[in-house]
UniProtKB/TrEMBL annotation:
Protein name from the UniProt record: Methylated-DNA--protein-cysteine methyltransferase
Keywords per UniProt: DNA damage, DNA repair, Methyltransferase, Transferase
EC class: transferase
InterPro entries: MethylDNA_cys_MeTrfase_AS, MethylDNA_cys_MeTrfase_DNA-bd, MethylDNA_cys_MeTrfase_DNAb, MGMT_N_sf, WH-like_DNA-bd_sf
EC number(s) from the headed UniProt entry: 2.1.1.63
Function field: Involved in the cellular defense against the biological effects of O6-methylguanine (O6-MeG) and O4-methylthymine (O4-MeT) in DNA. Repairs the methylated nucleobase in DNA by stoichiometrically transferring the methyl group to a cysteine residue in the enzyme. This is a suicide reaction: the enzyme is irreversibly inactivated.
Length: 175
């Protein structure tokens, strides 16, 4: 696994992205500066940097980068795969709806447990942005996002980019 940094207009600053021979294995919004080893594969750097840049500029709706799913397993991977395949650009799904659609929580009877668990799974999504956990929202609002206040700002930015939310006066994304 090797890492590259992609400059972004996101409130969190640059993305730190890990790549393997299989694809993108991890995406971090915060705190990976100086992570080793650095990616030196120019074709991977160009593909990841180019596609992420086009997406964040509003010129691409799908990143179309291969995903290395190795950092998620079992039910977590199943929920992430359901999100990846069933919630397209510009759409959202609630934590509870994703839990039900994934089929992972069949038989769970405690109200809210599946939705809360999906929220924890989204917070632990190793391939954020590629598997768009920003599209998973609470039944009564935007919900959470890793990274505290900056994370919520990133979620709002991405949902505004995708047309789910209306731009605010401080919107600095593409028009």
């Amino acid at each position: 696994m090797s890492w590259l940094t992609v400059e972004t207009p996101l409130p969190s600053g640059p993305l730190h992205i890990a790549v393997t021979a299989q694809g993108v294995a991890a995406v971090g919004y915060l705190g990976r500066e100086g992570e080793l080893p650095r990616c030196t594969d120019e074709s991977k750097i160009a593909a990841v940097t180019g596609r992420v840049g086009e997406y964040l500029a509003g010129r691409r709706r799908e990143l179309e980068l291969p995903i290395d799913w190795s950092l998620s397993t079992g039910p977590h991977r199943e929920v992430l795969r359901t999100l990846f395949h069933e919630v397209p650009y510009g759409r959202t799904i609630t934590y509870g709806e994703l839990a039900a659609r994934s089929g992972v929580f069949a038989g769970v009877e405690e109200p809210g447990l599946a939705a809360r668990t999906v929220g924890q799974m989204m917070a632990a999504n190793p391939v954020a942005l590629l598997v768009p956990c920003h599209r998973v929202v609470a039944a009564d609002g935007i919900g959470g996002f890793g990274g505290g206040r900056v994370g919520i700002d990133v979620k709002r930015w991405l949902l505004t980019l995708e047309g789910v939310l209306e731009p605010t006066l401080d919107w600095n994304g593409p028009l």
